[in-house]
Specification:
The complex is a heterodimer of chains A (about 130) and B (about 110).
Chain A lengths: L2 E5 L3 E2 L5 E8 L8 E8 L5 E8 L4 E3 L7 E6 L4 E6 L8 E11 L4 E2 L5 E2 L3 E5 L2
Parallel strand pairs in A: 2-12
Antiparallel strand pairs in A: 1-3, 3-8, 4-5, 4-9, 5-6, 7-8, 9-10, 9-11, 9-12
Chain B lengths: L4 E2 L2 E4 L5 E6 L9 E5 L6 E4 L13 E6 L2 E6 L8 E8 L7 E3 L3 E5 L1
Parallel strand pairs in B: 2-10
Antiparallel strand pairs in B: 1-3, 3-7, 4-5, 4-8, 6-7, 8-9, 8-10
Classes of the chains: A mainly beta (about 130), B mainly beta (about 110).
Chain lengths: ~130, ~110
Protein backbone atom coordinates (compact mmCIF):
# COMPACT_ATOMS: atom_id res chain seq x y z
CA UNK A 1 0.00 0.00 0.00
CA UNK A 2 1.41 3.36 -1.05
CA UNK A 3 2.01 5.81 1.78
CA UNK A 4 3.18 9.41 1.64
CA UNK A 5 4.45 11.34 4.64
CA UNK A 6 5.19 15.05 4.77
CA UNK A 7 7.91 16.41 7.01
CA UNK A 8 9.48 19.77 7.71
CA UNK A 9 9.33 22.82 9.99
CA UNK A 10 5.92 23.76 11.27
CA UNK A 11 6.89 27.42 11.70
CA UNK A 12 8.59 29.64 9.14
CA UNK A 13 9.41 33.33 9.46
CA UNK A 14 8.10 35.84 6.92
CA UNK A 15 10.40 36.39 3.92
CA UNK A 16 12.16 33.05 4.52
CA UNK A 17 11.91 29.84 2.49
CA UNK A 18 9.46 27.09 3.37
CA UNK A 19 10.95 23.63 2.83
CA UNK A 20 9.03 20.36 3.01
CA UNK A 21 9.83 16.78 2.10
CA UNK A 22 7.51 13.94 1.19
CA UNK A 23 8.75 10.42 1.85
CA UNK A 24 7.18 7.74 -0.30
CA UNK A 25 6.83 4.15 0.90
CA UNK A 26 5.24 1.24 -0.89
CA UNK A 27 6.02 2.87 -4.22
CA UNK A 28 8.80 4.64 -6.10
CA UNK A 29 9.31 8.23 -7.20
CA UNK A 30 11.46 6.69 -9.96
CA UNK A 31 8.39 5.18 -11.61
CA UNK A 32 7.56 6.53 -15.05
CA UNK A 33 3.86 6.00 -14.32
CA UNK A 34 3.34 8.85 -11.87
CA UNK A 35 3.77 12.52 -11.13
CA UNK A 36 4.27 13.62 -7.54
CA UNK A 37 2.54 16.75 -6.36
CA UNK A 38 2.20 19.34 -3.62
CA UNK A 39 -1.20 20.76 -2.72
CA UNK A 40 -2.05 23.18 0.06
CA UNK A 41 -5.11 24.28 1.97
CA UNK A 42 -5.20 27.53 3.89
CA UNK A 43 -7.15 27.42 7.18
CA UNK A 44 -10.84 27.20 6.45
CA UNK A 45 -10.21 27.51 2.71
CA UNK A 46 -10.13 25.31 -0.37
CA UNK A 47 -7.46 23.24 -2.04
CA UNK A 48 -4.73 24.77 -4.18
CA UNK A 49 -2.41 22.78 -6.42
CA UNK A 50 1.16 24.02 -6.08
CA UNK A 51 2.94 21.88 -8.64
CA UNK A 52 4.08 18.42 -9.73
CA UNK A 53 7.35 16.65 -10.52
CA UNK A 54 8.09 13.63 -12.71
CA UNK A 55 10.79 11.04 -12.11
CA UNK A 56 12.84 12.69 -14.86
CA UNK A 57 12.79 15.96 -12.94
CA UNK A 58 10.29 17.62 -15.26
CA UNK A 59 8.01 19.98 -13.36
CA UNK A 60 4.75 21.89 -13.73
CA UNK A 61 3.78 24.71 -11.41
CA UNK A 62 0.71 26.74 -10.56
CA UNK A 63 1.22 30.01 -12.47
CA UNK A 64 0.23 32.01 -9.40
CA UNK A 65 3.15 30.53 -7.42
CA UNK A 66 5.60 29.73 -10.18
CA UNK A 67 8.05 32.51 -9.37
CA UNK A 68 8.52 31.28 -5.79
CA UNK A 69 8.24 27.49 -6.10
CA UNK A 70 10.75 24.72 -6.70
CA UNK A 71 9.73 21.06 -6.59
CA UNK A 72 12.39 18.38 -6.91
CA UNK A 73 12.82 14.66 -6.36
CA UNK A 74 15.54 12.55 -4.80
CA UNK A 75 15.31 9.07 -6.22
CA UNK A 76 18.04 7.73 -3.92
CA UNK A 77 15.93 8.60 -0.88
CA UNK A 78 12.55 7.98 -2.56
CA UNK A 79 11.48 11.51 -1.64
CA UNK A 80 10.31 14.67 -3.31
CA UNK A 81 10.51 18.17 -1.94
CA UNK A 82 8.92 21.59 -1.99
CA UNK A 83 10.64 24.93 -1.57
CA UNK A 84 8.54 28.09 -1.43
CA UNK A 85 10.50 31.31 -1.13
CA UNK A 86 9.65 34.74 0.28
CA UNK A 87 6.76 33.42 2.34
CA UNK A 88 4.11 35.61 3.93
CA UNK A 89 1.22 34.93 6.28
CA UNK A 90 -0.85 34.08 3.21
CA UNK A 91 1.28 30.96 2.79
CA UNK A 92 0.10 29.58 6.13
CA UNK A 93 -1.62 26.32 5.23
CA UNK A 94 -1.78 22.57 5.54
CA UNK A 95 0.54 21.22 2.89
CA UNK A 96 -0.22 17.84 1.34
CA UNK A 97 1.87 15.68 -0.91
CA UNK A 98 0.05 13.46 -3.37
CA UNK A 99 0.39 11.25 -6.43
CA UNK A 100 -1.22 11.37 -9.84
CA UNK A 101 -1.01 9.01 -12.78
CA UNK A 102 0.77 9.51 -16.06
CA UNK A 103 0.58 7.15 -19.02
CA UNK A 104 3.93 7.42 -20.76
CA UNK A 105 2.75 5.64 -23.91
CA UNK A 106 -0.27 7.85 -24.56
CA UNK A 107 1.17 10.96 -22.89
CA UNK A 108 -2.00 11.01 -20.82
CA UNK A 109 -1.55 13.08 -17.68
CA UNK A 110 -4.28 12.55 -15.10
CA UNK A 111 -5.40 15.63 -13.25
CA UNK A 112 -6.61 13.91 -10.10
CA UNK A 113 -4.74 12.64 -7.05
CA UNK A 114 -5.33 9.09 -5.87
CA UNK A 115 -2.98 8.98 -2.88
CA UNK A 116 -2.41 11.77 -0.37
CA UNK A 117 -0.25 12.29 2.67
CA UNK A 118 -1.90 13.21 5.94
CA UNK A 119 -0.85 16.84 5.56
CA UNK A 120 1.37 19.07 7.65
CA UNK A 121 0.50 22.52 8.97
CA UNK A 122 3.01 25.24 8.21
CA UNK A 123 2.52 28.57 9.93
CA UNK A 124 4.27 31.69 8.70
CA UNK A 125 4.85 34.01 11.62
CA UNK A 126 7.63 35.94 13.25
CA UNK B 1 -11.52 33.22 -7.71
CA UNK B 2 -11.29 29.62 -8.91
CA UNK B 3 -11.63 28.47 -12.52
CA UNK B 4 -14.10 25.91 -11.21
CA UNK B 5 -17.14 27.32 -9.43
CA UNK B 6 -19.04 25.51 -6.68
CA UNK B 7 -21.83 26.60 -4.37
CA UNK B 8 -20.29 27.25 -0.95
CA UNK B 9 -22.90 25.30 0.98
CA UNK B 10 -25.68 22.81 0.38
CA UNK B 11 -27.93 20.97 2.79
CA UNK B 12 -29.96 17.79 2.48
CA UNK B 13 -32.37 15.92 4.72
CA UNK B 14 -31.24 12.52 5.88
CA UNK B 15 -32.09 9.89 3.27
CA UNK B 16 -32.85 12.40 0.55
CA UNK B 17 -30.99 13.11 -2.69
CA UNK B 18 -28.62 16.01 -3.18
CA UNK B 19 -26.70 17.29 -6.19
CA UNK B 20 -23.49 19.28 -5.90
CA UNK B 21 -22.38 21.10 -9.00
CA UNK B 22 -19.14 22.40 -10.44
CA UNK B 23 -18.91 24.77 -13.40
CA UNK B 24 -15.98 25.76 -15.57
CA UNK B 25 -14.94 25.98 -19.19
CA UNK B 26 -12.27 23.30 -18.80
CA UNK B 27 -14.99 20.75 -18.00
CA UNK B 28 -16.05 20.83 -21.64
CA UNK B 29 -12.89 18.96 -22.62
CA UNK B 30 -11.46 17.47 -19.42
CA UNK B 31 -12.67 14.97 -16.89
CA UNK B 32 -13.93 16.01 -13.47
CA UNK B 33 -12.99 14.37 -10.21
CA UNK B 34 -14.83 14.73 -6.91
CA UNK B 35 -13.23 14.52 -3.47
CA UNK B 36 -14.81 14.22 -0.05
CA UNK B 37 -12.92 15.86 2.81
CA UNK B 38 -13.83 15.49 6.46
CA UNK B 39 -12.35 17.74 9.17
CA UNK B 40 -8.71 17.07 9.85
CA UNK B 41 -8.41 14.53 7.04
CA UNK B 42 -6.93 14.46 3.59
CA UNK B 43 -9.36 14.46 0.65
CA UNK B 44 -10.61 11.14 -0.68
CA UNK B 45 -11.76 10.53 -4.24
CA UNK B 46 -15.44 9.60 -4.51
CA UNK B 47 -15.79 10.04 -8.30
CA UNK B 48 -13.08 10.18 -10.99
CA UNK B 49 -13.20 10.62 -14.75
CA UNK B 50 -16.64 12.23 -14.48
CA UNK B 51 -18.58 9.17 -13.41
CA UNK B 52 -16.33 6.39 -12.14
CA UNK B 53 -16.45 5.31 -8.53
CA UNK B 54 -13.34 3.91 -6.81
CA UNK B 55 -13.65 0.62 -5.02
CA UNK B 56 -14.95 1.08 -1.52
CA UNK B 57 -17.06 4.14 -2.32
CA UNK B 58 -20.78 3.49 -1.77
CA UNK B 59 -22.93 3.36 -4.86
CA UNK B 60 -25.09 6.20 -3.55
CA UNK B 61 -22.37 8.46 -4.96
CA UNK B 62 -22.62 9.11 -8.70
CA UNK B 63 -21.22 11.63 -11.15
CA UNK B 64 -22.34 13.20 -14.40
CA UNK B 65 -21.45 16.01 -16.76
CA UNK B 66 -23.23 18.32 -19.16
CA UNK B 67 -21.55 21.04 -21.16
CA UNK B 68 -19.35 23.07 -18.84
CA UNK B 69 -20.82 21.56 -15.70
CA UNK B 70 -20.10 18.46 -13.60
CA UNK B 71 -22.36 17.11 -10.88
CA UNK B 72 -21.96 14.86 -7.89
CA UNK B 73 -25.20 13.24 -6.75
CA UNK B 74 -25.69 11.50 -3.44
CA UNK B 75 -28.82 9.38 -3.50
CA UNK B 76 -30.05 8.67 0.01
CA UNK B 77 -27.63 10.88 1.91
CA UNK B 78 -26.30 9.51 5.18
CA UNK B 79 -25.07 11.35 8.25
CA UNK B 80 -21.51 10.29 7.45
CA UNK B 81 -21.71 12.06 4.10
CA UNK B 82 -21.57 15.43 5.85
CA UNK B 83 -18.28 16.85 4.61
CA UNK B 84 -16.66 19.27 2.21
CA UNK B 85 -16.73 18.26 -1.43
CA UNK B 86 -14.26 19.54 -4.03
CA UNK B 87 -14.22 19.14 -7.77
CA UNK B 88 -10.97 19.17 -9.73
CA UNK B 89 -9.93 19.12 -13.35
CA UNK B 90 -7.45 20.47 -15.83
CA UNK B 91 -6.70 24.16 -15.77
CA UNK B 92 -7.89 26.20 -18.72
CA UNK B 93 -4.65 28.11 -19.21
CA UNK B 94 -2.47 25.22 -20.27
CA UNK B 95 -1.76 21.53 -20.27
CA UNK B 96 -0.58 19.87 -17.07
CA UNK B 97 -2.09 22.58 -14.88
CA UNK B 98 -4.46 21.43 -12.17
CA UNK B 99 -7.35 23.34 -10.65
CA UNK B 100 -9.78 22.74 -7.81
CA UNK B 101 -13.20 24.18 -7.20
CA UNK B 102 -13.73 26.29 -4.12
CA UNK B 103 -15.53 23.47 -2.33
CA UNK B 104 -19.08 22.83 -1.13
CA UNK B 105 -19.93 22.25 2.51
CA UNK B 106 -22.62 19.58 2.67
CA UNK B 107 -24.80 19.50 5.75
CA UNK B 108 -27.02 16.49 6.36
CA UNK B 109 -30.05 17.53 8.40
Amino acid sequence: QLQLQESGPGLVKPSETLSLTCTVSGGSVSSSSYYWAWIRQSPGKGLEWIGSVYYSGSTYYNPSLKNRVTISRDTSKNQFSLKLSSVTAADTAVYYCARHDYDLWTNYYKYYFDYWGQGTLVTVSS
Amino acid sequence: SSELTQDPAVSVALGQTVRITCQGDSLRRSYATWYQQKPGQAPVIVIFDNKNRPSGIPDRFSGSTSGNSASLTITGAQAEDEADYYCNSRGSTGDHLVVFGGGTKLTVL
